[in-house]
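Weekly modeling sync, notes
Attendees: AB, CL, MP (scribe)

Item 1: holo prediction request
CL wants a bound-state model with zinc ion before deciding which constructs to order. AB pointed out that an apo prediction alone won't tell us much about the pocket. Agreed to run with the ligand included and paste results into these notes for async review.

Input as submitted:
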Amino acid sequence: MQKQHLPRIKISNGKTFNNSPHLVILGAGASIACMKNTANGKKMPSMNELSGLVEVQNLLKKHSVKIKEDESFEDFFSRIHNEEYGDLEKELEQCIWDYFSDIEINDKPNLYDKLILSLRGKDYIATFNWDPLLILSYIRHKKIGENKLPKLLFLHGNVGEGICYDCKILCNFHNKICHRCHKELSKSKLLYPIGKKDYNSDPVIKNNWNILRDVLSRAYIITIFGYSAPVSDVEAKEILLDNYKKSKYLELSEIEVINNSDRKKIEETWSDMFFSHHYCIFDKLSDSFILKHPRRSCDSHASACLQCDPVEEHPFPDFDNFDDVYSFLDPLISEEENEELK
Ligand SMILES: [Zn+2]
């Protein structure tokens, strides 16, 4: 095992940069990349692929409705929301809910396991995805302590997330009942593509966005993984941009974009988020700070950029079992406990 060097980055007020969060923003591309190891072989659809699902096709047949040739799923959904289509909108929502709820993971480590375990309690993962892969991976690592794992934010709702409106808490929907009061959980609202999204309409989604605004204003590294900021969600991009531009660490911070599409297009999409040349674009998550410096991404970046003292990379290997994953992480977690790191 390679020796760990934990950089101590002191700034003038005595705080350390180690406590600035690393924020990861996930879009459909991330879950598609993670699906390789799912248990029941389901396909992870992108938004436009939803209309091609057999379940959706059957529903459209039942209602004798067709998606027009040049119509995206978002346009189609807006059409049936705005016009008189009986129960089709409700049934379509249920159909999509059921499809994503059925997705399971197997017992092999997947990309979301690596992502979750490579971040610390100070860090955040905000996802636009409805599928339960992130929650299912998170649940299996809760035993190492939730204070050692990143916090999860669901920006469009999620099928794995249940809500107890009495206790005002989120619970794992798999259990169907609130772990505090044992009452039945409500489903998380899923935000559907109906043009202008109203992030204040649901108290839980609103709260997630408020936390995100705060994190954006103090994040040290932001990693945007598989999220292409679609034009149908212009509000989301505006919130990201407005709050990040207010960050007191803006001039020190770094943005990583993980996306294997055309580099020029990626730069065009995100150029207004980038401060000067403080950005990187990678094809794969394995090239990111997160997996090259697991649990030390902000620390190693600060050491390299602020102290001119680059830290040796310590990449997260591919493991096929969790015993090896935890053996790899043990020295890092012990070091955090000894140093009282967040
Ligand atoms: Zn409750």
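Recorded for review: The longest strand covers residues 22-26.
Action items: CL to compare against the apo run; MP to circulate these notes.
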